[in-house]
Amino acid sequence: MRLFNQSKKVAAVHDLSGVGHVSLMAVIPILSSMGIQVCPLPTAVLSTHTQYPEYTFLDLTDEMRRMTECWKHLDFTFDAFYTGYLGSPAQVQIVEDLIEHFKRPDDLVVVDPVLGDNGRLYKGFGEEMILEMRRLIRRADVITPNITEVFLLLDRPQPEEALSDECLKELLKALSDQGPEIVIATSVPVTDNPHMTSVYAYNRRGDRYWKVTCPYLPAHYPGTGDSFTSVITGSLMQGDSLPIALDRATQFILQGIRATFGYEYNNMDGIMLEKVLHNLDMPIQSCSYELLE
């Protein structure tokens, strides 16, 4: 009789900040709480995340190459590959090599294509980075762009007016046609209601579109995107359906913001994950997803 190791492992390619619940400081506790072993491949080490007015930055591009070579020699295997902020086109190429070498047919590839927000590219990114990210998403099973990144990946200008459900369905289908089976668009404003925000998703398997709408609280917490995609990754690895994964991730972020909102607390540190990690073991309280026809 052959016994199989039931512990799943994810190779997580993100940066590490000394202060702030962002990147690996969100990815590791969330996925660990969901029973998944995180194997970090850090892209950089920072004193704080980059939204602070001052920070130190140690680029680990060369070390990423050495680490992946070591993993190859040790013949490691992973059940999923999950990438977030990548600091340069060279790092994107390292990730492509990682996936090319290690991915088995049933392994999951999740790419959060971090490029920009609020209609603008992040500082230090240019056209080459956009082109590399377009290549990387072709290897992904799941991508989680915000609405700005949707338009950057499609090389389309982002309109100022609110987007209809039909328009968003077309955008998600166009991105899925580039490779990923599942496309999840976050931070989508709700027409005529600034107090709500939506997440849209498309699953090519079954050709279905999903939407989750939740309250928008007037507070900015860095790292919520990292936390959202981490819950999505963990849920799919646990066998949840896409709409259930969307509900779990959306409700977790909403719980985290509400738990943090009432404290005398520096918002720059991100949501207080320690207050809500235990919720990941609880069943969904109520389903808020809807199927778009």
UniProtKB/TrEMBL annotation:
Residues 75-263 form the Pyridoxamine kinase/Phosphomethylpyrimidine kinase domain. InterPro entries: PM/HMP-P_kinase-1, PyrdxlKinase, Ribokinase-like. Its EC number is 2.7.1.35. It is an enzyme of class 2 (transferase). One of its GO terms (molecular function) is pyridoxal kinase activity. CDD domains: pyridoxal_pyridoxamine_kinase (cd01173). Keywords: ATP-binding, Kinase, Nucleotide-binding, Transferase. Transmembrane segments: none annotated. It comes from the Bacteria. This is pyridoxal kinase. It comes from Bacteroides eggerthii.
